[in-house]
Amino acid sequence: DAKTTQPTSMDCAEGRAANLPCNHSTISGNEYVYWYRQIHSQGPQYIIHGLKNNETNEMASLIITEDRKSSTLILPHATLRDTAVYYCIVRVTYDKVIFGPGTSLSVIP
Amino acid sequence: DARVTQTPRDKVTEMGQEVTMRCQPILGHNTVFWYRQTMMQGLELLAYFRNRAPLDDSGMPKDRFSAEMPDATLATLKIQPSEPRDSAVYFCASGLTGGGYGYTFGSGTRLTVV
Fold first, then answer.
1. In angstroms, how far is CA B69 from the centroid of its own chain?
2. Chain B interface, mutation test: which of A59, A96, A98, most B Cβ atoms within 10 Å?
3. Minimal Cα–Cα distance from A97 to chain B, Å?
4. Could you read off the pLDDT of B25-80 as tens digits, one per residue?
């Protein structure tokens, strides 16, 4: 699996967009970018994934650069309930998920 | 919503005792994972199964840990004998290979070994 680099922590004002970056410069052509989050004391939760095109669902948007070496997860209107650790993972779809330390996002009132 | 069910939710046991954690994956999912989470190490993959066959258990201490899937609706993680350093939250997750979607995690079993 390709390695990812994420900032350790970020703050975001409530109601604003939260933009969480991830670098994955060694990503292979068949590896997808996945995002999960973990709210305190809960199990991780799948958010979104993509290969090369930008993706959007009811939770978030995923923007992947054209060279696929980095991506950004966007929470368009962050709420206090979005405070969590966000994990960026790259892998092939049939493989195991290996978690790094992630980004601890604090949404501030 | 379909869920991954883990039991027990919390377990306190004495050092040296056997501990068994159970996981009911989502019906139809063919891949099951066991993870352990501590403050120091974060989320560590212990083992995973596909179609009930173990694929990788390299993250598991072999001398005391064992993971099995007796049938498609049950995965177990056993620790014998337990040690204080095994204290952690243990998560089970399930998913569909090639489904292109993420895996679904259970709420975890919080294990405390005293």
1. 11
2. A96
3. 8
4. 999 999 999 999 999 999 999 999 999 999 988 899 889 999 999 999 999 999 99
